[in-house]
Specification:
This protein has helices spanning about 5-15, 20, 35-45, 65-75, 100-110, 135-145, 165, 180-185, 210-220, 225-230, 245-270, 275-285, 295-300, 305-315, 345-350, 360-380, 425-430, 460-475, 480, and strands spanning about 55, 85-90, 125-130, 150-155, 170-175, 290, 320-325, 340-345, 390-395, 395-405, 410-415, 435-440, 455-460. With about 475 residues, the protein is of the alpha/beta class. Strands 6-8-7-9-10-11-12-13 form an eight-stranded mixed beta sheet, with helices on both faces. The protein has a five-stranded parallel beta sheet with strand order 2-3-4-1-5, with helices on both faces. The radius of gyration is 24 Å and the shape is globular.
């Protein structure tokens, strides 16, 4: 019997789709926490008129597979026949030998049409996990939709598809590493979280000092989770892992290694990931910070400048880094448009450098905090779309983050035991150009307005800001819009 025989296809399909036999998704594939992207995807799937292909994109090990299984479980609960829900993990070696078109044909001929007729008037839902590993997936999905109009496709990918793909009916939904609030939901019993937080009825920046003290006090029990969150990251599977070395190994192998040596080479058709890994290692050692492609090419001495820029774009689309571009704030425009690079999760650097928790320096902690604040703000909206964030750098003036949207927000990360502020500090001297100028601090006492500074300047401890951003998002809100 040949490896890719219909019999083997059916065996693999049946193995993945155990709900065809059991009538439900096994508990081991489900988790109690449901991310915002799950709620958003479910709303779209419940819309009879919605015909777009959904693709959940994000770094490896952020829970994309879990979200797919949660969607399948809820669709079964809503009355969709189990055989109308088809899950395929494209990372399985079998699918490198058999075309997706052939596998789907075998499903329709032997399972969909070969089973009972009840359910044929319903949609058929296809869940393609790790679609970035399927060469030619675009043609397969388009052909599938043209042949069978009564279907919906939900995919996961570590690679963010291009704008061209999105224009052809593909809806991208971002799933970043967990927020600090979500991390607390997993690491602490969720029922003890929501009722305990003394969130002011009015916005945080309009709250009275005693309300801010009460808020800081109510979040204080989660401070011990915060340092570990900063060290091990927001990868759901690693939250309960107590062995730090094992956490680092899993990040290196499953998050970084598989992305650089499998996902990017397959999707972008490059020979291997060795030079890619060298570049990524270099970026890790220089983040967060502005990158010069020319200087990087000189330092590495193995890649040309155009290749450096192209590979940085690949790594960004693989969701291992985020790029922030400069804004001029009405001054003379920057002559050099150098992107500022952030790691998708600060724990990636800890893993690559094999840093013990006690070895993390104050400078590294400051850098990690800036990267974590950036990610939280980038995904601070009520849905999976990204918030536009720039940075400002002009001569000796620097502002870490500039958010534009409903409100203009300056963000300056000062995660030190003692912060030194003056009217010359850029986020303060230029505060009149923003609705709110946030200074993200370390200590609980550095919380609120400061006498003598502009009224729109507001200090907030990092762990409180990140907690509130994540909490608002799970409630379908944006903390920034409500400030």
């Amino acid at each position: 019997m040949r490896i890719t025989s219909p019999e083997n296809v059916i065996r693999i399909l049946t193995g993945y789709n155990h709900w065809w036999r059991l009538g439900s998704v096994q508990a081991e594939h489900l988790k109690p926490i449901r991310r915002t992207v799950f709620q958003e995807a479910m709303k779209i799937l419940n819309s009879a008129d919605e015909k777009r292909i959904l693709c959940i994109v994000g770094p490896r090990r952020t829970g994309k597979t879990t979200v797919l299984h949660q969607l399948i479980s809820d669709l079964i609960a809503k009355g969709i026949k189990s055989r109308n829900l088809v899950y395929l993990n494209i990372g399985h070696p079998f699918f490198s030998m058999e075309s997706l078109d052939e596998v789907l044909s075998i499903y329709f001929e032997n399972i969909y049409l070969g089973g009972e007729e009840s359910g044929r008037d319903q949609y058929v839902y296809f869940f393609f996990d790790d679609i970035q590993l399927s060469v030619g997936w675009e043609k397969s999905t388009k052909r599938l939709i043209s042949l069978y109009p009564n279907i919906k496709i939900i995919m996961s990918s570590t690679i963010t598809m291009s704008v061209h793909d999105a224009d052809n009916g593909l809806l991208l939904m971002h799933l970043p590493p967990m927020s600090f609030y979500e991390y607390c939901q997993v690491s602490v019993k969720a029922e003890y979280i929501a009722p305990a937080i003394a969130v002011p009825e009015k916005s945080v920046i309009k709250a009275e000092p005693q309300e801010l003290r009460a808020l800081a006090s109510s979040i204080l029990p989660f401070r011990k989770q915060f340092r570990r969150y900063m060290y091990t990251g927001g990868f759901p599977r690693l939250v309960m892992e107590k062995n730090n070395k094992r956490v680092q190994l899993m990040i290196l192998e499953a998050v970084v290694g598989e992305t650089l040596f499998a996902d990017i080479p397959t999707y972008f058709n490059i020979r291997d990931g060795i030079e890619l890994y060298k570049l990524f290692f270099y970026l890790c050692l220089n983040t967060p910070g502005k990158i010069s492609y020319e200087a990087t090419a000189r330092d590495l001495d193995c890649l040309a400048r155009p290749t450096i820029e192209k590979y940085v774009g690949y790594i960004e689309r693989a969701n291992l880094i985020y790029l922030s571009t400069p804004t001029d704030l009405g001054d003379k425009k920057n002559q050099k448009i150098q992107p500022k690079i952030y790691l998708a999760d600060a724990a990636i650097l800890n893993a690559i450098m094999i840093l013990d928790d006690l070895q993390v320096s104050q400078e590294q902690l400051q850098n990690a905090m800036e990267a974590t604040v950036y990610r939280h703000l980038r995904f601070s909206g009520p849905d999976s779309t990204e918030v536009k964030i720039n940075y400002y750098s002009e001569r000796d003036k620097n502002i870490d983050m500039v958010l534009t949207g409903g409100k203009k927000l300056f963000v300056d990360v000062r995660h030190t035991d003692e912060i030194k502020l003056s009217l010359k500090t850029p986020s303060i001297s230029m505060a009149n150009q923003a609705d709110i100028s946030l200074i993200v601090t370390k200590r609980d006492v550095d919380f609120g307005h400061v006498p003598g500074l502009p009224k729109n300047v507001f200090l907030i401890p990092a762990h409180i800001l990140l907690y509130l951003i994540g909490r608002a998002k799970t409630e379908g809100k944006s903390l920034i819009d409500e400030m």
